[in-house]
Amino acid sequence: MTRATHHVGPLATPRLRALAALPFVLALATYLLLLSLWSDRLPDTLATHFAVGDGGRADGFTGRSAFAVLGVGLLVGLGTGWTVLVRRSALWGAWATAGFIGALLVVLLRANLEATDPAQVASPLTGLALAAAAAAVFALVGLLLASLAPADEPAARPGATDGPRLTLGASEVAGWSRATASRPLTVLSALALAAVPAGLLLAPWPGALFALLGLVIGVPGLALARVRVTVDRRGVTVRPSLVPRPRVRVPLDEVAGATVRELDTTAVLRDFGGWGYRVRADRTGVVLHTGEALVVRRGSGREFAVTVPDAATAAALLNTLAERHGRV
């Protein structure tokens, strides 16, 4: 057995997720409203990429309908990612991202107003400066709103539970750690990252979006494809094997009990809605494959599950440590 020395932040609460989604909802609503109000003043083809030199003159173009779809997809995709993965300390990042992307889309729309020839449209560097300023303002709002989100999920005092125990002497200290991985997710993430250079070779605007989507899917996917699960005196910790963050931890004083559950494909789809990092009304989980899972019941009644080999040993040790901690 090995001991872990990693600390991790709590799972995001519903209020925190709502605060992370809010700036993307505002940016999306503004974008769609301006598209509607300016529809008669926008050309069928929009200038969407501009040369660094030559006064910022357009050198890449996108149809108006395609631009609308791409803008919506970009805001929805980034908003979904931030909402699922946000931590209170990073809420400002969600607001900064929404502010920058939303402002950049508005700047592009504004530059194309009344344009008869998209090739003559120019976008000076002040457009990027305005987007950066919007990101800074939104980041500040995110920092202020972070204080409204609780540090962790509220937990009632756990009650006793049945479950396996691992015999430990009064002075013994133990820890357990195992890695678990998903081959399909590894392959999918690798393919998404491979699409990044391919996207950069395409036309500027759709190519850049294609490359960005490859990064958005590939980077978190590869981080989640192989994780390490650790049980020790701090509780249960799940973190990527390749990078130190993001990490998920259920502190020992929130553990009401731990058991082992066998998850087949039907159970994964019914209880978690699929594979990956899953968030449901009464449970969260890191479900990378079928098979045995460590299931931790919190004092609030919510469950956290992670599929990992030798889950029985992890559950027994966690119950023993929680009992020793005086909570079970």
Question: How does this model look, in words?
Answer:
The protein has 328 residues and is of the alpha+beta class. It folds into two domains: 135 residues, no CATH class; 104 residues, Roll (PH-domain like), CATH 2.30.29.30. Helix 1 runs parallel beside helix 3, helix 2 runs antiparallel to helix 3 and helix 3 packs antiparallel against helix 4. The longest helix has 24 residues. Keywords: Membrane, Transmembrane, Transmembrane helix.
| Mean pLDDT over all positions | 76
Q: Helix segment count?
A: 8
What percentage of the residues does DSSP assign to strands (E)?
Answer: 15-25%
Task: Note the overall shape.
Answer: elongated
End-to-end CA span: 23 Å
Sheet having the most strands? 5 strands, mixed
Neighbour order of strands in the largest sheet: 7-10-11-9-8
Helix/strand/pairing category: alpha+beta
The number of strands is 11
Q: C-alpha Rg, in Å?
A: 24 Å
Q: What's the domain count?
A: 2
Helix content: 40-55%
Low-confidence stretches: 1-11, 152-161
Oligomer: single chain
Write the element-wise H/E pattern from the N-terminal end onward.
HEEHHHEHHEEEEHEEEEH
Organism: Streptomyces exfoliatus
Transmembrane segments: 20-38, 66-85, 92-113, 125-148, 185-203, 209-229
Keywords: Membrane, Transmembrane, Transmembrane helix
Protein name: DUF1648 domain-containing protein
Q: How would you briefly describe this protein structure?
A:
This is DUF1648 domain-containing protein. With 328 residues, the protein is of the alpha+beta class.
Q: Any chance you could write out the topology, listing elements then pairs?
A:
Elements: H1 14-37, E1 45-50, E2 58-63, H2 64-85, H3 91-111, H4 126-145, E3 176-181, H5 183-200, H6 204-225, E4 226-232, E5 235-240, E6 248-251, E7 255-263, H7 265-272, E8 276-279, E9 283-287, E10 291-298, E11 303-307, H8 311-324
Parallel strand pairs: 9-11
Antiparallel strand pairs: 1-2, 3-4, 4-5, 5-6, 7-10, 8-9, 10-11
Helix pairs in contact: 1-2, 1-3, 2-3, 2-6, 3-4, 5-6
